[in-house]
Design a protein that fits this description.
globular; alpha/beta
Amino acid sequence: MEQETIPFNRPCHTGRETEYVEDCIRRGKTCGNGEYTARCQRYFKDKTGSLKCMMTTSCTDALEMAAMLAGIGPGDEVIVPSYTFVSTALAFARQGADIVFADSRADSPDIDADCIEALVTPRTRAIVPVHYAGIACDMDAIMDIARRHGLLVIEDAAQGIDSFYKGRALGSIGHMGCFSFHETKNIQCGEGGMLLINDPALIERAEILWEKGTNRQKFFRGEVDKYGWVDMGSSFLPADYVCAFLWAQLEHLDEIQERRRAIWRRYDTGIADSPRFSRPSLPAYATNNAHAYYLVTRTPEDRTALIAWLKQRGIHAVFHYLSLHNSEYARRRGWSGADLPQADRYTECLVRLPLFRDLSDAEADRIIDAVNEFFASEPEKA
C-alpha cells in the first residue's frame, strides 16, 4: 500500500479560528483596528516588552513601513544579508536605497556580524539582520556597530516568533522589528504581519503611516477634533477578522511551540551524523523556536539527490532562498559585485525537512529513516 505523502508544511489550526471570525462579524466591525487587533497587539506588547505593537497585512508591509519610518531615500545604503527572502531588501529598494549585501556566518545562515563594519560607508543608514529559522543573530555586535556609526537597526524577525536573544524577545532589540504570520510560520493567519517599535521617537509617525498618512489615532484618543492627511502612509492595517483568526492561535502558542520543539529534537537526535552534511547550530545567546529544521549538505549534488530521494519516498523536502546578490534585479542595479561564499553555499546546499505542529512521531521517524538511509549510501549511488 502506497504511503501518504508528507507535505513540507501543513498550516496550523487550533479549532477556534472560525468561532472567533464569526464573533468578529457579529461585533459589526470587520475593518482594521478592531477588538481582535487590539487583543493581538496587547499580547505581543506584553510578551516582547516593546513600546508599540502594530499589526500589519504582512511582514513585507511591516518592513516597508519600517523603511518609511527610517526615512530611507535615494542615495542611502542599507546593509542586508544576501541569504534572505526578497522582501528584506525590497522594502528598502522601494524607497530608493542602494542595497549592500552581507555574507552569512559559516555556521549559520544568519548575517555575519564580523563582516558588517567593513560595509559601512557615509551613505549607510540602516542594518537589517534576519533571524534565520528563528535563531538570533549576534545582536550585541550589531547594535554596537549601529551605535558607533549612528545607524538604525531593523530586525527581520519573520521567522522569530517566541524566540529570544539573551532573554530579550527577537524584534524588541533593534529600533524596529518585523514579523510574519504567513501560513508557513509557527502561528499563522494565512497572510499577516506585525511591526514592533522600540524607539519612542518613532511612535507618533508610525501611527500616522499605519493610518494611511492621517492623524486618525490622535482623533480617536481625543487629542484633535478632526483628522486629516498629514504625511505619507499606506493601508497597512489587516482586517479585524484576520487578527481574530490569529488570536485563536495565540491562545495555544505554548502548546504549538512545545510540539514543534519536540519534533525538532526528534530530528536532531534521530538523524545520524555524517561528514556529508552539517546540522543547525544554536549559539549560547539564542533560544530555539523550532521554526525550521535544515541540513546543509557538503555538495550541491548531494542536496539535489537528497530532495529527489525523499520525494521518491513520499516526503516533500525543499531548498530555501536564492542569494539576492546573484539575482537578476541586483545585477541590473549593480549590487551584485561582492564575493559572498557562505550565502552561495546555503543557496546551493541547504535543505529543509517538513516541520509543522501536526507532524506525527511516526511521520517524523519515517523522514529520519529516509534521511539516514540516504547518507548511509554511497554518494554516487544516491
